[in-house]
Structure prediction request, 413 residues.
Amino acid sequence: MTEWYVPEDRKLLWYERDGEAVVFNPCSGRSHYLNALINEMLRYIEEAPRSASAIHAHLVELMDGSEPPELASRVTEILSSLELQGLVDPWRP
Amino acid sequence: MAAVISDLSRKGLLRRLGGDGIVLDTGAVATRIFSKVPEVADAILDHYGHYPLMEDDYVADYRLSLDRPGGIRLFYKRQVIGNVGVPAPFTPFPVDIAPMMLEMTMNWCVATRSNRYLIFHSAVLEKDGRAVILPGDSGQGKSTLCAALATSGWRLFSDEFGLFDLRTGMMMPNVRPVSLKNRSIDIMEARLGEGVLTRRLHDTPKGTVAYLPAPADAVARRAEQAPPGAVIFPFYHPEIEGAVRAYPKARGLISLCGGAANYEMLGEQAFRAMADFVDRHPIARIAYKSLDNAVAMVERIVTQGLTDEEAHSAQRELAG
Prediction:
C-alpha cells in the first residue's frame, strides 16, 4: 500500500494560526496556504509516513466519527496536489 | 534654496540627459537616466521637476535609458523604449506616452533589482510615524485610495512598491508619482481640481493614464523611514459603504507573499520576516465606495486598531 511522507530534505517551515497554515518549502522557495483540512493532513504525514486510509481514519476520528460525504476521494485529491507541489512524496513498496 | 530639476531649461535638461544623465533621488533608490528624446525630458519635468537636482557624480543604484528603438521602427513611427542594460520585457511605445515608459522602466528596476528589500506590491503612506501598507492588484482601488490619502495629510512613500528593510524592520520611501487609470482620473480631478494631475495619456496598454506628482513634503522627506503600522487590503465596491474585516492571519500572510515581487528569491528570510510582520500588525480588508470614508477607515485602523467586532470577523469567516 502506498504511504506518503515528507522527505528529510524538505524541512518545511510552518506558520499556523486558527487551524489554518502557510507552509514554506525551502526546496522550491514557495509558500502554500493550507486550509484546516489540508493542514491537519500534512501535519499528520509529517509525523510519520501514512497511507491514504490511515489519513482518512485519522480525520474521521477528529470529526467525532461523522464523516463528510466524499472525504475519501477528497483525501486522495489532496495527496496528489501535495505531491505536485513537492511537499510530500509517495513510498510504494 | 537647493536647486531642483525644473531649474534647468528643457534644452538644458536634454543636454544633461544626452550626456552624463540625470539622477532622480526618490528616497530608497536613485536612478540615473539617459535620453535623447525631448518627450522624455518633458515627462521628467512634469513628474520630477520639483525633485532636487543632484550632482553629476552622485552614485545611483540603477542606470536606464529611454531612446528611440532601432531597426525599421525608427522610420515609420516616433516611438520610445526603455533600456536597462539587460533584456527587459518592454515593447516600444509612441512618444506621446513616453511618461508611462519612464515610470514602467523605473518600476522594472525596483521590482527586479532592489533585493536588499522585501518588495511588496503595494502603496505605502505614513502618518504620525506609522506606515500603512495597502497591497492590491490593479483595479482594486489601491492607487485611487493612495492618491486620496497622499492629499489628505498622509505622507506618500510609494504608489507601487512597498520596500521593507529586512535588517531594520522599517519601511523605506521610494517617492514617485501616483499612477491613476481611467475612471480614477475623473474621481481625483473632481476631488483635487484641474491642473493638479499631469496631462492624460490616451490609448496606453492600461487605457487612459494620468499621474499625481508626489507632494512636495513627501519629496522633501524621502529619506525618512517609518515602522509599519498596519496592512490594509482595499477593495472598491460600488454598493458597500465602509466595511472592515480582519484578515485571518494565514490568509493575510499568503496574500502578502503572493504580492511580494522578490519573495521566492529571498526565500526563508522573507518567509520568517513576513510571518513576524503578520503577527505584529493588524491585517484588515476594507470595502468602500466613498473615498472620504476609506480615508477615515484607514486612519482609524492605523491609529486605534481594529474594533473587537472587526477582529472577531476573522473567526466568523473561519467558522463559516
